[in-house]
Backbone:
């Protein structure tokens, strides 16, 4: 009787108001329907709306083929080789539109020796809505919403699992996780974000096939690991990662530190909890509103900061700290021999080192503060200071950090940032200020045409040219051409490197 009453309280309203759906997504569905195609809202957006959450994006599934979608929408772009789908672009927003897919049959020409080959060959086999639902990862992600009938289509029991707060794999979890090992990380992330329990069968499958996570591609492992920090669920996600034994596979050094530092009572959990506290309101696990390098660097530095502080001496010099930080970072994130070989970009690793070494720079004397304010990594340092002070319950340090924040506000007021720097500064939502150092531009000196005694030089008569006036740029020694050469030789801005790093990771 009690369980029945509890289920009654969790009963979901399966009616979704059109006002909760993105207008562009609705327009895409309506156009597909008018063109004779079937189209549903699918996945996380349906799940989140039913749970009373705000979806971060809206995905659509249809029986229209990718090329047919491209012909119907001029703003559509086809992506993917293994999994072909269309991205319909509306400004900065993208509506992901895929085609119903199915699993291969026994009579089809596929490589049956490995599930990996089976999975890859089966990606672009088109099928029915029910077949498509059966191929998805979890039941709560396999719900379709029909706009025409305003109803939920549930082929896998996702509504019941939503009501019970259970994350369940569709079909045999052993096969699902072997098809795509990254699904194990996704199970950890979604269960933490939604406060759901992972079904016992799925937990057993994760424990059985945990080693196979290393067979997944590095970019996908990296992306899913970064998502564990989203929605202020870093502590909960990494605790589940530790309990499932996946942490030992992905970050063995962190696993070893937990063993020697108290396990469930380790300071590492305090740092992750402080990260969540500072990260309140940053409700995304996919796209970063801060710059890519700063975002990754803060997450990595928050994770390994207690390891660094445990190995670092308070009396060590800055050079010794940098050496220790670089060794630790190389061992965990940079070494090609680590398991897995993260091989993070060097620029990210250097940024993490700056943050770790400068964790207690807030103790610096007043006359040296302006020098720190102008450092590129200052905002990152400040964020890590606050995380460290919160994790250790150091109220005096938190008060000092507030003084530093006020000092930086004053510094920026006296030394205003350039327009490009100010634009990059606005990209930070956690960091209160831009980390770019101000570089004063030196004005060009005007050369006066004078004799050595100061008397003005007599103007020479201009010679007539038969072929028109001479272009100053033709003279290699002209001042105008010198300026052009100077500009052309100027190094590319640091934000371009960040964009390139982000593209590499994608």
Residues:
């Amino acid at each position: 009787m009690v369980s029945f009453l509890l289920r009654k309280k969790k009963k979901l309203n399966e009616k979704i108001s059109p006002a909760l759906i993105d207008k562009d997504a609705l327009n895409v569905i309506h156009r597909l329907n008018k063109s004779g195609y079937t189209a549903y809202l699918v996945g996380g957006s349906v799940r989140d709306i039913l749970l009373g959450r705000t979806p971060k994006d809206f995905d659509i599934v249809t029986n229209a083929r990718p090329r047919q979608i491209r012909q119907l929408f001029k703003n559509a772009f086809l992506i993917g080789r293994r999994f072909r789908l269309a991205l319909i672009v509306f400004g900065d927003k993208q509506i992901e539109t895929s085609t119903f897919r199915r699993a291969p049959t026994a009579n089809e020409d596929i490589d049956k020796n490995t599930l990996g080959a089976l999975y890859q060959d089966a990606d672009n086999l088109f099928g029915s809505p029910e077949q498509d639902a059966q191929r998805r990862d979890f039941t709560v992600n396999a719900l379709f919403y029909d706009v025409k009938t305003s109803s939920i289509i549930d082929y896998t029991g996702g509504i019941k699992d939503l009501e019970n707060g259970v994350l369940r794999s569709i079909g045999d979890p052993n096969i699902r996780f072997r098809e795509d090992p990254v699904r194990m990380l996704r199970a950890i992330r979604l269960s933490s974000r939604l406060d759901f329990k992972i079904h016992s069968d799925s937990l057993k499958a994760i424990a059985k096939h945990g080693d196979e996570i290393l067979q997944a591609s590095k970019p996908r492992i990296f992306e899913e690991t970064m998502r564990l920090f989203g929605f202020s669920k870093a502590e909960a996600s990494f605790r589940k990662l530790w309990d499932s034994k996946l942490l030992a596979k992905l970050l063995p050094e962190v696993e070893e530190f937990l063993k020697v530092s108290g396990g469930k009572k380790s300071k590492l959990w305090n740092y992750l909890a402080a990260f969540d506290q500072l990260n309140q309101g940053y409700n995304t696990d996919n796209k970063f509103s801060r710059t890519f390098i700063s975002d990754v660097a803060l997450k990595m530095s928050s994770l390994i900061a207690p390891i660094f502080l445990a190995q670092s001496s308070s009396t060590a010099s800055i050079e010794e700290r940098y050496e220790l930080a670089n060794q630790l970072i190389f061992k965990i994130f940079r070494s090609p021999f680590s398991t897995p070989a993260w091989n993070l970009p060097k620029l990210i690793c250097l940024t993490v080192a700056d943050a770790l070494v400068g964790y207690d720079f807030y103790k610096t004397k007043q006359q040296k503060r302006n020098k720190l304010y102008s450092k590129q990594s200052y905002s990152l340092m400040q964020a890590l200071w606050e995380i460290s002070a919160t994790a250790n319950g150091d109220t005096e340090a938190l008060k000092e950090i507030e003084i530093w924040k006020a000092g930086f506000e004053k510094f920026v007021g006296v030394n205003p940032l350039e327009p490009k720097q100010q634009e990059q500064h606005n990209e930070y939502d956690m960091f209160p200020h831009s980390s770019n150092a101000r570089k004063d531009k030196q004005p060009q000196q005007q050369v006066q045409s004078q004799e050595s005694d100061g008397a003005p030089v007599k103007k020479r008569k201009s010679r007539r040219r038969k072929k028109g006036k001479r272009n100053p740029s033709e003279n290699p020694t002209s001042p105008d051409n010198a300026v052009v050469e100077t500009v052309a030789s100027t190094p590319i801005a640091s934000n371009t490197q960040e964009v390139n790093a982000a593209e590499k990771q994608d």
Q: What stands out?
A: The first helix runs from residue 2 to 9. Strands lie at 39-42, 59-62, 76-79, 85-90, 93-99, 144-146, 151-153, 166-167, 197-198. The chain has a mean pLDDT of 78.
